[in-house]
Amino acid sequence: MRRNPVLQVNLRSAGKKLFAAGAAVAISVAFIVAGMLMVDSFNRGLTQQIEAEAAGSDLIIDTAMAMTWDEDTEDYLRDDVPLAEEIDELDGVDVADAVSGAYLSDVEEDGSATIGLPVTEQSETREGEISAGREAQAQDEVVVSSAAAEGQGIELGTTLTAQEFVYEEGAAEDAEPTVIEEDYTVVGVMDTQGSPRGFVTPEGMERVPAGGSPVEIRVKLSPEGEATEVQEQIRGLIDEAVAGLESTRAADLGSLEVRTIEEIVETRMAEQTGSGDALGYFALGFGGISVFVSALVISNTFQVLVASRQRTLALLRAVGATSAQLKRATLMEGAVLGLLGGAAGVVLGTTAALGFSAIARATFAPDLPLAGPTLLATVVGLGLGLLVTVFSALLPALKAGRVSPMAALRPAGLGAAMPKISILRVSIGLVLTLGGFGAVLAAALLGGPEGSLPVPAPLLGVAGAALGFSGVLVLARIAVPGLVAQGGRLLARIPGLRVNARLAGQNARQVPGRTTATASALLVGVTLVGTMMVGASTAQTVLYDELAERYPVEASVAAVGEDLQADLTESDLVESFTSAQGTSATLTGELGSAEGRVVLVDEETFAGVARVGGLAPAPGQALVAGQLNGEVYSGSGAELELMPYGTASSGAEEQAITVEASIASWLPGDTVLITAESLPEEALAEEGSPWTFSDAQGITLIRVAEGVSPDESYGLASLMEDHSEQFNDEGAVMRASYSQSIDMVLLIVLVLLGASVLVAVIGVSNTLSLSVLERRREAALLRAVGMNRRSVGQMITIEALLLAGVALLIGTALGAFLGWAGVASMVAREDWSVVLEMPWLRIAGLWAVTLLAAGLAAMLPARALSKVEPAAGLSED
Q: Is-above-0.85 flag for pTM?
């Protein structure tokens, strides 16, 4: 720097003007660094957990498949036990244990089980210190892991129970099973990482009523044993055992893998790091968006700086500075900014990752290692900051090198108000826009299983969206300044804004480069947020429509009565309900017969509870519970005979009807819905008819309230099972689960995209602040002709709001199109129609927040320009 006086002049003149651009770099770098460090923390935690679970063993064989059912003895055959015995006799092996597993539960007084704890046998091939109590010694004792003690609240002295439900051969379908139970007492807590689990003695595993199932063979080598040699010997034993077995059993046993601890860690990491990779993809993806926005902000900042330094640069040229020196100085200024911003981003990202990991440890992931700085994250952060700023400063550097020494002899002014339209720019912009968005439209309309696209529709849509949006940014230089000026003219019609609004619009039009760059930074964030909002809302509508088709009634229970009505009325989970009477009947189809109920319904029955209309079956048709599919009938369209309970003298056989079955997965078991038109004419008219409908055999249909969470939806089952064992709440659970998933994804994405919007707002403030340098004479002249300070500041604020308004207008339109197209390209079923759904309330919130942020960003620049005194401003060149 000492040898580059031009750089020293640039840095002194810039001063605090580069602070906002540096902040944009820091935020973007912090985003990516934090994501990388959180992924590193996640992976280290997973590695430690796997190593802790395998500690004490040198080789482990996963034997979950080493068990088969023997039809002759009607018992399970285990291949892991004899294999472990043979391994134990190999040279170099100290111990080989065939570890079995089972489940223990915490059984309440009413018989309900609240804890399902996996347990395995204690083994000398497993390491772990007892942190409380002692090891299990008797067959009715169990030791639990620290995760089970902390996460599930299991204490010393707690009784856990192994259960087996046995049904007697030939018992009726509604017969209660015999429950065989064995109790185990918690005598110790083992301090070990991993998921909650327990450990019992080998005798304790044999005591489990249902018996233990194979889990793994853990092998501990003797001091002279070599892992590679023993692996090969065990592989030979497996091959020998496979040779004498039938095909299925041989395939299961032959698939066993003998792995070292290092191989186990590598394999399980590959299987379990999906969430970590997803976290990394999110961080890199949205961090990349922030970097892109930062590049726009930085480029705009340097362009304004170069414009404001025109006389200074010209004077430097006049006293001997070369064009190359000016270019190098501008690029080096960007490099200094990038290194400082990158360093700040590394510190900020590391601090954020440390905070996130600390919160995770204190709440839901106590074993997660604290995130800390890594060489890779530091190098990536610094390198990214340097690369982005140098690249963004490249075009301004070229402009700086073109400054003529003659520019020092004339005042620096603004460029032409209306520069010539570049035919090349228009052509490139149109090609990119039309081609890119054409690809998006093709992905939306032609995707699906029968589509004729050469590549997957989502991939084509993403690529097309990137190209199309790039074209929009190219054309923005032509469209945005004019739109801002037009917006100024519209605002000028408001009393009190006639002069200020028109001037603000014209100012934006006079410097199209600065205006476009500022609006483009906002446009990126607004388009992405709008796309996610519209996409989530559209996807939610598509899923809800599909759920409405599959589950038009979200819950149903085979009960009718005042007590049930009172409970449903008081429940916050229920929006509405209705009841229909039924009768007992024999249901006979191509596959057999079953006893069930036939319920009489009409369109009024479904009014207010069904999500779709026209649900009542037509004459000769019936809605039949999905439970009966495969037991009584086979698929929709099958014929089903319904015969009411009665005797020959009552005419039950004569009044049997045949209907065409349609599967209704939302009905309680053994239920059939028909309309009165399907019954014989005399069925309801004659007294003593076997078709007697009453509340005793009726059902109640329920519509779930909006906004019910998945956890809350499970409470509906508890409410219904108090009145009948036959109920169906699948639709309610599915709807609540989809709603929460979409809302959660949307929340995460919006928080991540908020970083890019924040960077864009910083860019607005920075650009307006730097533009004050160019407009001091303009402000002084306006003050000299009578404009007061308030009006001058108001002009800057209006300009910021106009820029934000144009970005919101274009971004919302693009977001609506891309959001709809994104969902349409991912829907792979022809019977799903994707209709655009605009979340107007969320969109209004986006507009309000963006306009407010733009207004706040303009406060300091507006105040600075309003303080320009007429005499001082007019005296400047």
A: no
